[in-house]
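Newbie here. two chains, one complex. Structure please?
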Amino acid sequence: MNKKAKKIAVVKSKQKPKVKPRVKFSKPKVKSKDINYDHLKIENKWQKKWAASKIYNSKEDTKKEKCYVLDMFPYPSGEGLHVGHPKGYIATDIFSRFNRMNGKSILHPIGFDAFGLPAENYAIKTKTNPEIAVKKNVARYKKQLEILGLDYDWSREVNTTDAKYYKWTQWIFLQMLKKGLAYESFEPVNWCPTDKTVLANEDVENGRCERCGTPVEKKLMKQWVLKITDYADRLLKDLDALETKEFSNKIGSDAFRKDAPVNERYVVHCLVKHWSENKFLCMRWKKNDWRGYVVGGIEHGETPIETALREVREETGYKNVVVKKVVGNMVAQFYQEVKKENRRAHVTTIYLELTNGEQIDIPQHEKDIQDMEWVPYENVRDFVNREDLKYEWDLFTGAAKQKPLLDWPESIKESQRNWIGRSEGAEIDFRLNFPKKLDDNMHSVKVFTTRPDTIFGATYMVLAPEHPLVQVVMENIENRNEVQEYIAGAKLETEIERTDVKKEKSGVELKGIKAINPANNEEIPVWISDYVLADYGTGAVMAVPAHDTRDAEFAKKYNLPIREIELENRDDMIHKYGRSIVKYKLRDWVFSRQRYWGEPIPVIHCEKCGVVPVPEKDLPLVLPRVKSYEPTGNGESPLAAITKWVNVKCPKCKGKARRETNTMPQWAGSSWYYLRYMDPKNSKQLADAMKEKYWSPVDLYVGGAEHATRHLIYARFWHKFLFDIGVVSGTEPFKKLQHVGLIMGEDGRKMSKRFGNVVNPDDIVNTFGADTLRIYEMFMGPFDQQIAWSTDSIVGARRFIEKLWKLVAKVTYAVVTETGEIDSVATFGLNEGEGEGGAARAEADTVRGGTISTVSANHINKILHKTIKKVTEDIELLHFNTAISALMIAVNEIEKIGSVTRSQYEILLKLLAPFAPHVTEELWYAVGNKKSIHIADWPKFDPSLIVENEVNIAVQVNGKIRGSFKAAADLSKEELEMIAKKLPEVVKWIQDKNITKVIVVPNRLVNIVVL
RNA sequence: GCCCGGGUGGCGAAAUUGGUAUACGCGCAAGACUUAAAAUUUUGUUGCCGUAAGGCAGUGUGGGUUCGAUUCCCACCCCGGGCACCA
């Protein structure tokens, strides 16, 4: 895939691009000789050993849970990788290594996407055959990737330009053809005059070719098109779909009721106060869901207050309840809790009080599902949020709370929603009326509107200049010349000019033509204007200047009537005058390119039979070698010049026929490659069904955000199609998606040869080591955030690894004699062979009275177990920067203590192994292990070890920190308050003052409020 | 214009059931080691006032809720991204 970033931008507003002319690689400040850490030797050694031992090869092991980790495969350009590229690969590497150590069966493959314009243009520029250029570039990329120590299963490598691979790309196309999803269209398409090919809508950016920036032209051409619009609705809906989950609980309750309120606007939350004490009623649904309030649905005709009273009586049995107010200051805390549940919720929160405790019996079915408890005001929050009582049901819909089907960043989902651009509206026919009727036909014009409720305000109609009807009625137009001139003028404009919002609107009235508004039978003028687009909706609009800014602008300019009206009922209007219809902005995918370097479209044009697919047995249809692969510009690809290849017999009638000479777009091969990794060598099908079922879907997919509206939409489309024809088992290919934040140049601009700010990863690996590079890139900041590279800051990562390296000398172990007795306690050395010998080693911490004190050992244990927890959680969330920070803290602490047992050190190594695979492997063997650390078990933390027995208590006076003290954990509130009040630095602030209130948060703070 | 995301030291950034803001790293300053430098190491490092003890201010701005707000609410400013004469 092409690694193009869309915009050049700096990370932060405040930070102006610091233009440093010198961005070349600078010499490092580290010296590794002194401590014997030779990263080149170590990294090289382990990379070879891992390749030989095949520990990273994937297997469909049904006994294990699977984990499919995927990178967006690279598009090997001529320039090689820069340090920004590996960021995503390092992240998936960490994630897959982590999951492997957690006992999962891993698929972490890689391949190359190499068909398409970039490779072809590069080949033309360098005058090499694209096939050869691609081979060379792939080899270079592979080498660059290999030295990073990534755990790819290279035996599953795919390449989209390999005939064995694109056989299946062509096969999928044929299946689409069979289902009518691939068709030839003859319509205006985007044409790039520089690249001399048509483009899909997705390849056009602000009216320009996404590759070369040339403004695209509209050209009428016959093209292969894929009917992605048939899938528009599913592509949109599944973005918000929920994971299907079995849910059997049928017990009736508002929470589960089918007719429960589905719209949060019709829900009330009732806060119910005790009749004599400052306590609130907390409800417990027996499905472990605590609420601090009663939730009820407003039924038809009720006011929220009535609902509140009814719900509280029904659900709690307390009869004598009165409404105090609707969200007042007094209950602001509760209100905030409610809002937190759902930021979009606009619930009415009602505060009620009981006048007495009189209670009637509630029905058994209510008792079955819920309990009640009176909870003191200040404890309600803790009570509701108790960790062990996470709630599983959606508050508003009553459905089981489910995870979304797609765990994707909201921004990418939103991009796709925008791109698909669904809008619901109506098609309404306006009859046309013109005096000089040439025939009796009363023509009519279909308009598309999302506001049928404004139909009475339609005071004129506007057609796109290209609207076919204009030509039909041309003879009846009085100002024919003027109209034709306008149409000709509009044609000359580029898309960019035409769709410029700032441009003043222009248009011409079709004099002599009138339209009739079906709502009031009024005759209204008909105009043409280029602000109406031919290819959206119906190419015609009813103009309602009172309710549409564009129409208003136009009406003002041409003095057309603007009529304020009362809005009608939308559905009634649609019903009376038109039909409801859904339109999408998404266009069908223009699928042919007039270029050489792509998959040949496997179709034959027969004079008699028309379009005939190449028989499946003849696949792959291999891309033939060609003398000149320069684009022709005449709408044919260079393949058309190979008459021998082009002229074939029709597979059906054996008559004269020609091959299709257009090729597929760059995005074809990448639309399904993740499936091929599952079974890369299968010659019978694109992937074996069992294997597909085992590995699907991709558990984590990492790549650039710029693919949001292309690759990621195309792949979802193809996947859904393959699902429909039974080739794949699920409806979505990528379960979790994460986008990588770009690494910018040191000057804050995008890394590019053009700016001379490219940093080559090979240089970094050479001087600092792959492990250092990996740690640095993961430590830079949040993974999805764009950050500028800084060679100066790498030393931090390097120093950290060196600290770990030096720490091995402080690992203690017991030397055991042949009879099993402890001879002495020793440490490991940094040099090979040091510390070894005839004597066996044993854990130092088993030694009675050994060198490491119990206190220190316990202290290290506490640190380590906290670190295990933090690192484990952080890797799962892809919070690599904070995971590394936790590891640094652990190393610093252990270094300070100065001694560590072997088992403790090994935990540390394991935690770091996914991040720095080489150095940890080296040290792992150095302390006496015989099997790779990368297949060792991930450490588990012991919660009891994490518990602090001494805590720091902050003391505030009127909310300001005035002091602190250490105290045993879980000291009572009273004791804490007493100690706090006696602290000299606190006494100073509270003496001579009236203490009005003391707030004590156990294990945290004491706040003394004085007057 | 509509829709997402974000704004914290000199810099990259931590911190979410509302509870000691600035963890970790870079840089910088001072000390140790060294003939010297590098490397290493120790200490310090939000700003202002103060020799210090300490005080005041402080998480884009202005309000609000609260004993307590980076965190919740309201309004606004700025930055980044997506869509855009889409009817």
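Moderator note: The mean pLDDT of chain A is 81. DSSP finds 30 helices and 40 strands in chain A. Thread marked as resolved.
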